[in-house]
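To assess whether the prediction recovers the assembly geometry, we first specified each molecular entity separately, as shown.
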Amino acid sequence: MSVETLLSVSGTVFYIIASAMAVLSFVRIDSRRDKAGLMCLVMGSIILSAALALRVVKAGGVPSFNRFDGLACYVLGLSVVYLLVNTHRSTRGVAGLLFPFLAFILLCGITAQGVDPGPLPAPQNPWLVLHVVVGYAAYAVFSLASLNAAAYLLQDYNMKHKHFGRVWEKLPSLETLDHLMSRLVGLSFLLLTISVILGCALIHQTGGSDRWITDPKVAAVSAVWILFAVLVHMRASADRHGRGVAILTVGGLALVLFAFVGVHFVADTLHAFLKVHRGVAGL
Amino acid sequence: MTVSVVGISFHTAPVELREQASLRSAEVSLRLQGIRAEFPGSELVLVSTCNRTELYTVGIDMAAHKDRLISHLLREAANPHAAELSRHFYVKQDLQAAEHLFAVASGLDAMVVGETEILGQVKQALVLSEEAQTTGKVIHTLFQNAFKTAKRVHTETDICRGRVSVASLAVELAEKIFDNLITKTVMIVGAGDTAELALKNLIDRGARDILVLNRTHAHGQNLAERCGGRALQFDLLEDYLSKADIVISSTSAPHLVIRADAVRRSIQARKGRPILLIDIAVPRDIDPEAGLIDNVYVYSIDDLQKLASDNLSKRQEAVDEAWLIVKEGLSGVAMLFDGGGLREVLRKVDDYGRRIGETALQRTLAKEKMADLPEPLREEIVELARKIVNKMLAEPREALKRAARNGDWNQYAGVVNDLFGFNSKEQGKEKLNIPGDPAGGDGRAQKEDTTIL
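The predicted structure of the complete assembly is given in tokenized form:
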């Protein structure tokens, strides 16, 4: 087993421990356990970063991602955004939904990729790397918005049905969750727009081709971009709030995950230039 | 040092008696200084709240001076009845006194278990006593440990989670819907007492924009003036409903006052922003159908009472856990007490062992056949005796330290005192009782001033 694989597995284990602690905090509130869970998430993030950094060093630049790398980048992005949000506003109750989601994604990555990370392909064009990284960041930020929306719906259910249990107690206020959703959706729209512009510039740089217009991945990402735009409009222009917007934001996660990973399973895409070894990743 | 508490609380006296001993902050310093003048060198902290008045002392013999202290605590008007009132005062000493302080600070002894305000009041009492210069090292250590333990109890258990009064639950519900209450508009429909109390709680948490609607406009104006809000004509209710984030209704109307249709229209105008409707009227003022509308949260008096009862149950469940933390906290102050303190008991155990060794050695070395024993051999025997005593006492010493750490101190201290007969010896003025010693077997062996070991 290579060092990167060992690090990847260790990082995943930390994420699993963090998610167990976050779920337990819904059973019994304990601020020390919350802190321990958060520390596990930080440790897992550091270890995963080390694993990815090691691959970059070995390849002499940013290599194209295998499936685990892609998902690990997505998980790291989500973790970093969550930690940043959490320093600004306490949303620890959301951890009970987020951490298990992250652990599940990493386990999927490990299962799909196996323990061998495979050969290291040649380093990528820096603009391509930026295009991919910004796109991942957009997905990660929107995913956090979706999980906040899921927390909103859960809290809404508790409030409506008078379930004043630990989950109700642990989750932040509806307004906090609504506000975070709004901010995160706005940020993800901005990031995805930048990534799309970079993608267009890359097509232009490589001579351009009509084939990109009909690429399934491009179509899926376009749908995601339209969804983000609709959500931003609902927030910024129409000033809509509450349950309806939360349902749409949760539904949006399915579209994002399809555009991110799912499309590679159902159609051939020109983005398969990122396909390596046994896995695929990329926008 | 003897630590004691003498006090009166809701456990022992009704309010009409408690108020005789209740003191304002300004009076506390004067009382403390008065007591200090009578008992120089003592350390004092006086805690006076609506539910209790308690004087914590260090260095005062409570058995001898209880009545004097009670008389200091009572208002002058009550002093002629001091004897009668003193029946309602309790006295606790040493570990029991410390345990009481820890329980009070943690909210375990509160009228509503888990109440947190008392911790602030006890802290304030210490500050007042420090200003009056009646504190000292022992009482300061005791109170700091009590604060540390109370903090642990509050953070590590569910003892103070959730509010338990109907009026304060409006805040709890509002805080689960809104980020903060500063920018929120609160509408009060009707001017009932509970609604007013709920409003006060919301104002305490930052609510500033208050609308009051009452059928009798003058009553509404009266309440609006008291809480710094605006009084509106009652028939403007529907017009203003969309502007209100929190509505508390408590009219005595026999019919619905806020209908579901009106709520639906207001939520459309609010573009999905949530609205909290609290109905504390019986019969109900708010159409229960309104609760089915998205982003509308309706709570009746029964819902609030259920939440209060759930919160109280959660607190009760945490009581045992909280007591364990108090016991752990007590181990940190066990060494402060006379007779029961770790350091004191360890010293007694050491003295006991040393005396047994010394007496036995003296008796042995005084024998005629030992007279010619060379000095090095004599020293060897003394050293051997010392080692045997130390070895025998090592494990009991460790067990005592463990007991203090684990909060079992009371039980162990009692057992040790009984096993080694420390209590009877103190009563018998340090008479030494060496088991199996023919000379001292009757417990009358003389205490000799020797330093062999």
